[in-house]
Design brief:
One of its GO terms (cellular component) is DNA polymerase complex. This is Integrase catalytic domain-containing protein. GO terms for molecular function: nucleic acid binding. Helices cover 33% and strands 20% of the residues. By secondary structure, it is an alpha+beta fold. Helix 3 runs antiparallel to helix 4 and helix 16 packs across helix 17. The radius of gyration is 42 Å and the shape is elongated. The protein starts with 16 loop residues before the first helix and ends in a 5-residue tail after the last strand.
Amino acid sequence: MRVVFDASAKTSTNVSLNDILLTGPNLYRDIGAIILNFRLFEYCLICDVCKMYRAIKLNQSDRCYQHILYRHSPNDAIDVYELKTVTYGLSCSPFLAIRTLLQLAYDEEERFPLAAKVVREGVYMDDILYSCSSLSQISRLQDELLEMFNSGGFILKRWASNSAKVLQRVPLENRECPVTFMKDGNEYSVKVLGLKWFPLTDCFYFTVDKTDKVTTKRSVLKLLASIYDPVGFISPCIFIAKEIMQDLWKLGIGWDEQLPTDVTKRWLNYVDDLPRLTAIKIDRHMLLPEQTECELVAFCDASSRGYASCVYVISRNDRGPRTLQNIINQNFWILASRRIIRSVLSKCKICFKHNPVLLQPEMAPLPAARLIPCNVFEHVGVDLGGPFFTKESLRRNARVERSYLALFICYSTKAVHLEVLSSLSSDCFLACLDRFVARRGVCSFLYSDCGTNFIAASKHLTEVQRFMLEQKNNILEGCSKRQIIWRFNPPGAPHMGGLWEAGIKSAKYLLTRAVGEKSLTFEELTTVFCKVEAILNSRPLCPLPASDNPDEFNVLTAGHFLIGKGLTAVPEYNVEDITINRLSRWQYIQKCSQMFWRRWSHEYLNTLQQKAKWHSDRSNIKIGDLVIIKTDNVPPCNWPLGRIEALHPGPDGIVRCVTLRTQKSTLQRPVNKLSPLPYSN
């Protein structure tokens, strides 16, 4: 029983003592933060400051406001009692009590740093709860709390902990639960700021009192208020009750009126399911021991009925081989221990699948088509980009359609030809290819990624070539002998088409800077890409060469091989009045062409020798090896397995593409998308 004095009682002046007292600021920490600190580490303890108010004495000058006037009967003389300590019932008492504990922590922080920290972070009213990462640290905290509070005249009782060793140091009369954690054969529970906690299993649980079947708004509110959940452990479970209460307010039902039939059915179903809350057990310790890294991942969603949020704790405790080696070296000395540890860890299938090591073969030499002078667009790489949104007309409400970019790039000169496509279909691409051939000439080889539309177009083109060869009497002899050889890169190997991938990137960059997000018509987009093509073909192929002539500022571009000069070069002087015979003019043109190719071989080819990555020479993969196949947008642990069935080495003998057999099919992949498993076949 606790005596509470009514300091809010009005006097004859209609003013109470609490009306004139300053309550002080709220010094209580958030109860959720205190419980969170209590859940952080493996070992924990709780205790209670016994009769905290009675242990705090008031200043002599302030005690006159705590006089109690009392007599047994009206005829007796009035006895005056003076309360010397902080008194229950005064509005300022909570502030005075907590402020006294904080002052004690400030005064004794140098002697008891750990206890002072706990007072600032783990005290709510007269309850103290905290957790530590080790048994020695929790024991040290217990000693500091006892000594610091004893120095302030406080007594700590009702000790509880999840460690029996901590409780063994506490007298039985000061414990909240016995060492055995059992009571009458059942597990002992402790109240932690209103939550029920099992020290033996170290978990929180919930109980629900038996409820009657009265279906009124008063009974709904009574049950809802009886479930104490300060940190939201079971918020999803009480959401239905809150929703029913909200519906009752909308219906305007009185406190003791019978609920409607549909609401009554929902409420009784909820009450019948409520005892299942006792099956919910929530671990107090939520992190791994000796935690090194921790992340919080939050999700939230809302609807017309309510909103919900959930925060997941992602913890990592990978100390790595170096820490493991240091632990082993404390008792043993193993020769080459680090190498042995790494070899053992690398054979772990689970660890390897979560962090696979992909193959990185040595960079292949440039293909011959990049190094041999030949006609422009003799060897061509092709790729598609987009989509780009175009308007049907200039009207404000004109329909918006998708358009695409087809890029043709010369292997030797990096000359670019751009075409705009109205759709991603094989027929549209073949028409685009016809336009390219009509303007740039027939190419001998065409290279591209392994796109489905490219494959279909290649098959169609092969049929057209077969028809032309069979009908060679009806067509020109020269056209029937020309063929376009189409070569595809392995699937999933965009790095093998870096030449045209870089061209697509540059074209998109220029378009984005010039147009932004504005939608153009198809004609406007075609015009813009023609200008982009001119800019790309005017880019220097190599840096300006060193020369003794200060007027030498012309650099070699792809436009020199197309029209004899840069497409965006400045206008030249009029030389029509200069007489020149036809033979010397032809020789002059030949000289210019030879000069361009000479500069191409001396200045541009040297820049192609640089290799930015993939320098190391590693052993080739072998037939029969079991590998993990990298799959985009899929976590590594879900990457499929495959076995090598065939190798496709390059001209230098290094394997960069293989044929795999998986559980479902046979496919080709580049080796930089494969990770050999660390154990034998």
